[in-house]
Amino acid sequence: MHLTRDEESILAGERGPGMQRAMEILVALGRIYDADSLVPITSAHLSGVSYKTIGEGGIDFLEEISKDARVKVETTLNPAGMDLSRWQEMGVEEAFAKRQLTIIKAYGNMGVTTNCTCTPYFTGNSPKPGESVAWAESSALSYVNSVLGARTNREGGPGALAAAIIGKTPHYGLHLDENRRPTVVIEAEVQDEITDYSLLGHVVGQRLGAAVPYFKGIKPDCNGLKTMAAAMAASGSVAIFHVEGVTPRSLDCDLKGLERVRLDRQDIRKAKESLTTGKDPDLIAVGCPHLSQMEMKALASMLDGKRPRSDSPEVWFCTSRTVRTWCPKETAVLERFGKVVCDTCMIVAPIESRHECTATNSAKACTYLPSLCSQKVVCGSYAELMERVA
Ligand code: F3S
Question: End of a domain among 252, 273, 294?
Fold first, then answer.
């Protein structure tokens, strides 16, 4: 990989050990993936925030690099292991909370915005078409590539942080036109409903792995797109997709000679059944990825004027702090039935210490709840889940 004189000097440690460490990470990634150079980025989004996932090893790395390194571009953070202000109400132990706050402090010291959400594109960090960025969090980076038309590889936490510190990322993979083209056409016939889009994404990721799907026959809005992106990245490793007439420049894609796969409501029904492993949830958690303003309004209007059921399980509505601030009326309605939880989610919070069976409408959450949170799972639509609540 070609390095400029300035980049060589950073690698040699002339700008301090933090920047040197960051450049070492980028050079190592560039060599592995055969990048030709480093390309400037306009933003970064970092995963590796929850104490549950990064542990003491992650804290050591962050404390070391944050001694003298600062981010050069707008940089946002993925969800942490708890609501940073209401962690006691979530039943999080003090020892966990202390270590979580140490992580947030280290990121804050580097100039990272510590508003922890996996949908930063709804709240300000929204790259423009054609821009190169370095995003971790598989659902968010797929949304950025597919819906916003910016360019990022499927970064890990350290790679995205290193890119944020240097302001550049290795030029390979999805920064190149040839790797963004569709490789398979999906002719889909599903209900125009957010959970069905999530399940459609689940089936596509499961069957096709790391393909670049081109969808025909569906017209998801931004909420359907975010949940599809999340599910495809979790069950497969899809990092970019196209939807005919919906995502940018989809009508310019060349589909000649591509394999075609038909998916219909039967496939969606079977996926829902296969993800459901439990029966009686003691937690209902929605907002994977984090709820948008529109979803907060839709959920509040489903519940407004109703009474909480006496046998309702605990309920979490997971969203960003910014969206919660934008939705005071909806938050007041939802808080009568559960908690509007910010900065965290049902996967990266330590729910396994208090819950055994979780219900959700997100296929991504259904995929990870058994392995990362030791949960049995109930998969249901918003309407089905809210029936258990009110
Ligand atoms: Fe976001 Fe957590 Fe789902 S980070 S995409 S809500 S697993």
Answer: 273
* One-letter amino acid for residue 314 of the chain: E
| SS3 sequence of 264-324 | CHHHHHHHHHHHCCCCCCCEEEEEEEEECHHHHHHHHHHHCCCCCCCCCCEEEEEECHHHH
d(CA 2, CA 14): 18
57 and 100 assigned to the same domain: yes
Q: How far is the CA of 227 from the centre of ligand 1 (A)?
A: 10
Cα(290) to ligand 1 centroid in Å equals: 7
Tell me the residue ranges of DSSP E strands in 107-199.
134-135, 168-170, 184-188
pLDDT tens digits for range 273-298: 999 999 999 999 999 999 999 999 99
Q: Which helix (H) or strand (E) holds 234?
A: helix 222-235
Whether this prediction's pTM lies above 0.90 is answered by: yes
Of the chain, the end-to-end C-alpha distance in Å amounts to 59
- Write out the residue range of the structural domain in which residue 115 sits: 5-177
Kindly list the protein residues whose Cβ atom lies closer than 6 A to any atom of ligand 1.
78-79, 118, 139, 230, 288-290, 318, 345, 347-348, 364-365
- Which domain-ending residue is among 273, 289, 304? 273
Is 284:314 a contact under the CB 8 Å cutoff?
Answer: yes
CB 349 within 8 A of CB 81: yes
User: Which residue's structure tokens are 């998969």?
Assistant: 379
Q: Which two tokens stand for residue 146?
A: 């597919």
Q: What is the pLDDT of residues 103-145, one digit of tens each?
A: 999 999 999 999 999 999 999 999 999 999 999 999 999 999 9
Nearest to 338 by CA among 285, 280, 375: 285
Q: In whole angstroms, what is the distance from residue 56 CA to residue 232 CA?
A: 30
